[in-house]
Amino acid sequence: MRKGTHFSEETKRKISETKKRLYSEGKIIPPMKGKTFIPNENQLRALREGRKLSHTEEVTAKRVKARIMKGNYKHSEEARKKMSISRKGYHYSPKTEFKKGIIPWMKGKHQSKEAIEKQRASMIKTYSTNLQLKKRISEATKKVMSNPKFRERLSEIRKRGIASGKIKVWNRGKRPSEETIRKQRETLMKRLSNPEERKKVSERSTATLLRLYETGTFPKQENTKPERQIKEELIKRGYKEGIDFIHQYKFMNKFMCDFCFPKQKVIVEAYGDFWHANPNKYPAGSTLHKHQIKGVGRDKSKEAYIRKVDNNSWIYLILWESDIKKDVAKCVDKIEQALLRIS
Q1: Predicted confidence (pLDDT) at residue 17 exceeds the cutoff of 80
Q2: Which residue ranges make up each domain of the chain?
């Protein structure tokens, strides 16, 4: 071709199609096949300084960038040495290096106590004045923490960090002081004095228990607080465990019962108001949770079976959690009345 002349678009298209066909047929081998593009020192310097590249440098840079993005580009040892030598000749300020992601600007440094206090004060001021920001951050945190996979991953990272010693638990092996315990108790009692707050806490606790129950991580409930109260009152009145009564007795190797008086043939059950659906709190027609429905059905089967054993000679006594909490002595009086009736 003569100097200064150019191919027409049609000619360029035909040349391109011919090259592609010859490459696909294997008649022409691409000049860079099996080789690695290695930008030289001048090209790297030009790229860092943001200078306009020549046509050859620009084509090379584009190819290198494309290979890097695809993940199949690796610098050779020689190229890495050249890049290292080239890089050593240029020194950025710490601020610029931080912007470029070379080093964190706080590496090897520590904030002063004054700076930390200023940050804390600023954060408290922002949270107290900008309620929308506080609400937005709270919603975003709840959304992230509602993901079970994220919580599980976070728990694994924390456990691994604690095991390796990278994460230190500040209160491990320490017991709160009496003053701290007193303040915590006062704060909790003040919060629970509000009926609405008490209702919220109760609903949240129930929801947590149900979630644990559904996931299978809910521990088996034995020796509950109502049971302990009944047991303490019985011992206080002179009844001996293992002789007069048995705590956690498996009836006919079929049903587990809270208390059994084998001589008098009396079974005593301490029922929780929620799990066993106390009729005083859940009257007929109330909407029950699926676990409550299951529990009520199991309770009916157990009671019907025990009452029919040995020609209906067994007494089945139910004590509700709310009644035990209100007056445990009165509940134990009912047990003694049942025992006297048999004897």
Answers
A1: yes
A2: 31-99, 117-164, 178-215, 225-342
- Flag the least confident range among 81-90, 125-134, 180-189, 239-248: 81-90
- What's the fold here for domain 225-342? Endonuclease; Chain A (3.40.960)
Instruction: Place 176 in a pLDDT band, splitting at 50, 70 and 90.
Output: confident
Estimate to the nearest angstrom the gap between the alpha carbon of 109 and the chain centroid: 32
pTM to 2 decimal places: 0.45
